Amino acid sequence: MDDEALRARVRAFLAAHWSAEDRHDPVAVRRFRALATEHGYLFGWVPRELGGSGTPGQPLAARVIAEEFAAVRAPGEPDGMSVAMLVPTLLEWGSDEQRRRFVPPTLTGELTWCQGYSEPTAGSDLGSLRTTAHADGAGWEITGTKIWTSGATEASHMFLLARTEPDTTDRSGLSYFLLTMAQPGVLVRPLRQLTGQAGFAEVTLAGARTTELVGERGRGWEVSRSTLRHERSMVGGPARHERLFAALLRLASTPRPDGTTALADPLVRDELVGLHALVEQQRLAGRLRDSGDSGNLLPLTAKLAGTVIAERVSALALRLLDTDVLHGPDRTRWLHQWLGSLGIAIAAGTSNVQRDIIAARGLGLPS
Ligand SMILES: Cc1cc2nc3c(=O)[nH]c(=O)nc-3n(C[C@H](O)[C@H](O)[C@H](O)COP(=O)(O)OP(=O)(O)OC[C@H]3O[C@@H](n4cnc5c(N)ncnc54)[C@H](O)[C@@H]3O)c2cc1C
């Protein structure tokens, strides 16, 4: 089916089954996602027996579907850590039993995950992490401290890296585990951020128990690279930047008390055109990546480009609001968005490290 025929079919489905008013109703959202999956519009990359629609290898069709869903604010595939990062990792590395146990309830939101990589002494250099996992016949006992763990206060489970080979001090001695948060050996201490929210936490693992090792013992680094790759393409994914830019455009078009709009200002229009070009570039780069025909460099640039867009869009929104001396919910939302964009430049690999990777692996320069 060509793109236009697919678009028409998706639009008809949305017109019949989705009302944007339902978007804040979790039950309606869950029901809609289940129906959309049944019709083959969501989770094509997940096999049917694991709760997906089992139509792999059609990323361009998935992109068209995502665009149509976004146009009417219909809930597409959630892009958080659970669905966009852990599920593809388990499909790649998990045992059959782990896939059966963890993938379906993660797709429906019954299980939610946080990521336990960073530690007080290990961030960019994860190979130096110190949390240990000790095998004792009945499973693994995990001891150490994780930090900056996003969503740890709400998550039911954690995927994490721990050192299983005591004689190593680098990446080679790490293994990848799944852990239940609700157990006596797990202590979560929320950390308050600049925004006043506590989006992440320090998690103390004091003899926490698990039996779930993903992949082979000592090969956790390879498993975690798969999760990180999905994290970076999620952060650099075009959909969220298109949404953000659309919100900026709405803001610039909102009439001020005197009836004028920021959009009428040629300097603002000039900046908007520049940003729109970046957002379009990111969208087209996403399409190329999905087609599998993008070469070595493009996949490496997604996260860094996304970081730049998020920061510049929210900075311009704040400037527009400042000029208009408008305060209130809009300003607070954009302020949080801008502060959040500073965090994105650090999370999932800092921008400096991204530049290093692009230079070395993408351009063949010395790192
Ligand atoms: C909003 C947010 C959410 C996060 N969520 C999670 C989470 O859920 N789970 C989790 O495990 N972690 C999470 N993190 C932590 C994040 O992964 C780390 O902060 C990040 O990897 C950087 O590590 P660090 O803070 O130890 O800084 P460091 O690694 O100590 O870096 C300090 C500075 O040195 C620079 N630097 C370091 N190495 C190099 C290099 N080789 N080349 C050039 N420059 C370098 C960095 O760019 C940075 O400017 C989150 C962070 C943020 C901001």
Automatic annotation (TrEMBL):
Keyword vocabulary terms for this entry: FAD, Flavoprotein, Oxidoreductase
Gene Ontology terms, MF aspect: flavin adenine dinucleotide binding; oxidoreductase activity, acting on the CH-CH group of donors
Single GO cellular component term: plasma membrane
Domain (Acyl-CoA dehydrogenase/oxidase C-terminal): residue spans on this chain: 218-362
Domain Acyl-CoA dehydrogenase/oxidase N-terminal: 3-110
Cofactor: FAD
InterPro entries linked: Acyl-CoA_Oxase/DH_mid-dom, Acyl-CoA_Oxase/DH_mid-dom_sf, AcylCo_DH-like_C, AcylCo_DH/oxidase_C, AcylCoA_DH/ox_N, AcylCoA_DH/ox_N_sf, AcylCoA_DH/oxidase_NM_dom_sf, Mycobact_Acyl-CoA_DH
Family of the protein in this entry: Belongs to the acyl-CoA dehydrogenase family.
PANTHER family listed in its UniProt record: ACYL-COA DEHYDROGENASE, ACYL-COA DEHYDROGENASE FADE29
Name assigned to this protein: Acyl-CoA dehydrogenase
Originating organism: Actinophytocola xinjiangensis
